[in-house]
Design brief:
Blueprint lengths: L1 E2 L3 E2 L9 E4 L5 H12 L3 E6 L12 E2 L5 H15 L4 E4 L15 H29 L2 E6 L12 H21 L4 E7 L6 H4 L13 H12 L10 E3 L5 H10 L22
Parallel strand pairs: 3-4, 3-6, 4-5, 6-7, 7-8, 8-9
Antiparallel strand pairs: 1-2
Helix pairs in contact: 1-6, 2-3, 3-4
Length: 270
């Protein structure tokens, strides 16, 4: 894994980089698996039910909300490959679109558990590996829903806002260890999940999966480290512009979740 000023991280030749991708059996996760493999990465895919990835390679069965299962899988990946250079937390859920007072409590909470506890547990298991090897990168699949309220997706919005705080914390704590973290909002890619959502009924303007994977590959290659702890959105952000902004540097609030004061006289403005 490349680290600014050092090329690839100690012990990782450019063709030996290892990526761990959750939710890899279908949808955006499957696109990540294929794009990384085509770029020369060794890819280990996780799926709750196992099975195979888009290239027919076996997936490791793992419930990412189960701490013991996650720990065992990460230990196995390190035993087999010696390192983990990139973690993509793609596994996620969205609840039925309903007002909060009509939501089923178990379904609502399971959305939060999957979208927050899952990335927490995988990061908790993988980050010590990255620290020991001299660096690494984490991509958390976020959403524009994490930056605003929706009347009918309170669990999903809450979970994605929380995920942004995890990403930001990793970026702050991990910087001295050569670890970078990115919130990647994929836009609206045509998947089983998006087709299940009432808000996308009749949609024809889908985000190109290639735009999503291009940003992921650029971040994995160290081209967007200036966005560590921040959010980018495939389909809206130009990759060339992201590269330029990353090199130029961002302000402390750029592309981060922040409270917006009503003006300079707001006591919270400082």
């Amino acid at each position: 894994m490349s680290v600014p000023g050092q090329g690839t991280a100690p012990g990782a030749a450019s063709g030996d980089r290892v990526a761990l991708v959750t939710g890899a059996s279908r949808g955006i996760g499957a696109h990540f698996v294929r794009a990384l493999r085509e770029a020369g990465w060794t890819v280990v895919g996780l799926s709750r039910s196992g099975g195979t990835d888009p290239d027919g390679a076996p997936l490791l069965g793992c419930d990412v909300t189960d701490a013991a299962a996650v720990g065992a899988v990460v230990d196995g990946v390190v035993a087999d490959h010696g390192r983990i250079d990139l973690l993509i937390n793609n596994a996620g859920l969205v609840e039925p679109e309903l007002p909060l007072w009509e939501a089923d409590p178990e379904t609502w909470w399971q959305t939060v558990v999957t979208n927050v506890r899952g990335p927490f547990l995988t990061c908790r298991a993988v980050l010590p590996v990255m620290i020991a090897q001299g660096g690494g990168r984490v991509i958390n699949l976020n959403s524009g829903a994490g930056t605003r309220e929706r009347a009918d997706l309170t669990a999903y919005c809450a979970s994605k806002s929380a995920l942004a705080r995890i990403t930001g914390g990793i970026a702050l704590d991990g910087a001295e260890h050569g670890i970078y973290a990115l919130d990647l909002a994929p836009g609206v890619v045509e998947t089983d999940m998006t087709h299940s959502m009432r808000m996308h009924e009749g949609r024809t303007d889908w985000t190109d999966p290639g735009d999503v994977t291009a940003i992921a590959l650029a971040f994995a290659d160290g081209e967007l480290d200036g966005f560590s702890g921040r959010m980018v959105r495939a389909g809206a952000d130009s990759l060339d512009t992201l590269r330029e902004r990353s090199a130029a540097g961002l302000g402390p609030d750029d592309r981060a979740l922040r409270l917006r004061p009503w003006g300079p006289d707001d006591p919270l403005a400082g």
